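Fold it.
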Amino acid sequence: MKKSFFLPAFIFNILILLACYFGKIKLAEWNMEVKILLWGNILLFAICFASFELCVRGLHSKNNHAFFRMVYGSFMLKLLLIAGAALVYILLEKKNVNIPALISCMVFYLIYTGLEVAALMKENKQKRNN
Protein backbone atom coordinates (compact mmCIF):
# COMPACT_ATOMS: atom_id res chain seq x y z
CA MET A 1 0.00 0.00 0.00
CA LYS A 2 3.02 2.26 0.15
CA LYS A 3 2.36 3.09 -3.49
CA SER A 4 -0.71 5.05 -2.36
CA PHE A 5 1.62 7.70 -0.95
CA PHE A 6 4.82 7.20 -2.87
CA LEU A 7 3.46 7.51 -6.41
CA PRO A 8 1.52 10.80 -5.96
CA ALA A 9 4.34 12.27 -3.84
CA PHE A 10 6.94 11.16 -6.38
CA ILE A 11 4.93 12.68 -9.23
CA PHE A 12 4.58 15.95 -7.29
CA ASN A 13 8.33 15.90 -6.57
CA ILE A 14 9.13 15.40 -10.27
CA LEU A 15 6.72 18.18 -11.26
CA ILE A 16 8.44 20.61 -8.89
CA LEU A 17 11.87 19.57 -10.16
CA LEU A 18 10.77 20.06 -13.77
CA ALA A 19 9.15 23.40 -12.96
CA CYS A 20 12.37 24.58 -11.35
CA TYR A 21 14.47 23.38 -14.26
CA PHE A 22 12.32 24.78 -17.06
CA GLY A 23 11.01 27.82 -15.19
CA LYS A 24 14.29 29.27 -13.91
CA ILE A 25 13.77 32.57 -15.72
CA LYS A 26 10.18 33.02 -14.56
CA LEU A 27 11.08 32.06 -10.99
CA ALA A 28 13.92 34.58 -11.04
CA GLU A 29 11.41 37.24 -12.15
CA TRP A 30 9.33 36.36 -9.09
CA ASN A 31 12.46 36.68 -6.88
CA MET A 32 12.51 32.98 -6.03
CA GLU A 33 15.83 31.27 -5.58
CA VAL A 34 15.66 27.99 -7.49
CA LYS A 35 18.31 26.35 -5.30
CA ILE A 36 16.14 26.83 -2.19
CA LEU A 37 13.07 25.45 -3.97
CA LEU A 38 14.97 22.38 -5.17
CA TRP A 39 16.62 21.54 -1.85
CA GLY A 40 13.46 22.35 0.10
CA ASN A 41 11.40 20.07 -2.13
CA ILE A 42 13.87 17.19 -1.87
CA LEU A 43 14.11 17.58 1.91
CA LEU A 44 10.32 17.70 2.29
CA PHE A 45 9.86 14.64 0.09
CA ALA A 46 12.35 12.64 2.16
CA ILE A 47 10.93 13.79 5.51
CA CYS A 48 7.33 13.13 4.52
CA PHE A 49 8.26 9.69 3.19
CA ALA A 50 9.97 8.81 6.50
CA SER A 51 6.99 10.21 8.40
CA PHE A 52 4.59 8.11 6.33
CA GLU A 53 6.64 4.99 7.04
CA LEU A 54 6.46 5.64 10.80
CA CYS A 55 2.71 6.20 10.70
CA VAL A 56 2.07 3.06 8.65
CA ARG A 57 4.17 1.05 11.10
CA GLY A 58 2.10 2.45 13.95
CA LEU A 59 -1.15 1.82 12.09
CA HIS A 60 -0.37 -1.88 11.72
CA SER A 61 0.69 -2.27 15.34
CA LYS A 62 -1.61 -4.20 17.64
CA ASN A 63 -0.79 -1.85 20.51
CA ASN A 64 -2.63 1.50 20.59
CA HIS A 65 0.22 3.08 22.52
CA ALA A 66 2.63 2.11 19.75
CA PHE A 67 0.37 3.82 17.23
CA PHE A 68 0.38 7.07 19.21
CA ARG A 69 4.15 6.86 19.74
CA MET A 70 4.70 6.48 16.02
CA VAL A 71 2.36 9.36 15.15
CA TYR A 72 3.97 11.65 17.73
CA GLY A 73 7.41 10.53 16.60
CA SER A 74 6.45 11.32 13.03
CA PHE A 75 5.29 14.78 14.08
CA MET A 76 8.48 15.44 16.04
CA LEU A 77 10.61 14.22 13.13
CA LYS A 78 8.92 16.67 10.79
CA LEU A 79 8.98 19.54 13.26
CA LEU A 80 12.64 19.21 14.22
CA LEU A 81 14.04 18.53 10.77
CA ILE A 82 12.02 21.17 8.91
CA ALA A 83 12.42 23.84 11.59
CA GLY A 84 16.10 22.96 11.89
CA ALA A 85 16.66 23.24 8.14
CA ALA A 86 14.83 26.58 8.02
CA LEU A 87 16.80 27.86 11.00
CA VAL A 88 20.13 26.85 9.48
CA TYR A 89 19.19 28.54 6.20
CA ILE A 90 18.07 31.73 7.95
CA LEU A 91 21.20 31.85 10.12
CA LEU A 92 23.48 31.31 7.13
CA GLU A 93 21.79 33.82 4.86
CA LYS A 94 20.90 36.42 7.51
CA LYS A 95 19.83 39.44 5.42
CA ASN A 96 19.59 37.55 2.10
CA VAL A 97 16.79 35.17 3.12
CA ASN A 98 14.55 34.44 0.15
CA ILE A 99 11.06 34.79 1.65
CA PRO A 100 9.12 33.79 -1.53
CA ALA A 101 11.10 30.53 -1.75
CA LEU A 102 10.50 29.79 1.96
CA ILE A 103 6.76 30.40 1.53
CA SER A 104 6.76 28.14 -1.54
CA CYS A 105 8.45 25.42 0.52
CA MET A 106 5.72 25.85 3.14
CA VAL A 107 3.13 25.26 0.40
CA PHE A 108 5.09 22.18 -0.70
CA TYR A 109 4.96 20.95 2.91
CA LEU A 110 1.18 21.38 3.02
CA ILE A 111 0.78 19.45 -0.23
CA TYR A 112 3.06 16.60 0.89
CA THR A 113 1.22 16.44 4.22
CA GLY A 114 -2.13 16.31 2.42
CA LEU A 115 -0.88 13.45 0.24
CA GLU A 116 0.41 11.66 3.34
CA VAL A 117 -2.85 12.02 5.26
CA ALA A 118 -4.91 10.87 2.26
CA ALA A 119 -2.71 7.79 1.87
CA LEU A 120 -2.90 7.01 5.60
CA MET A 121 -6.68 7.28 5.55
CA LYS A 122 -6.76 4.91 2.57
CA GLU A 123 -4.42 2.52 4.38
CA ASN A 124 -6.58 2.61 7.51
CA LYS A 125 -9.73 1.95 5.50
CA GLN A 126 -8.14 -1.08 3.82
CA LYS A 127 -6.87 -2.33 7.19
CA ARG A 128 -10.40 -2.18 8.62
CA ASN A 129 -11.86 -4.03 5.62
CA ASN A 130 -9.42 -6.95 6.01
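The longest helix spans residues 99-129.
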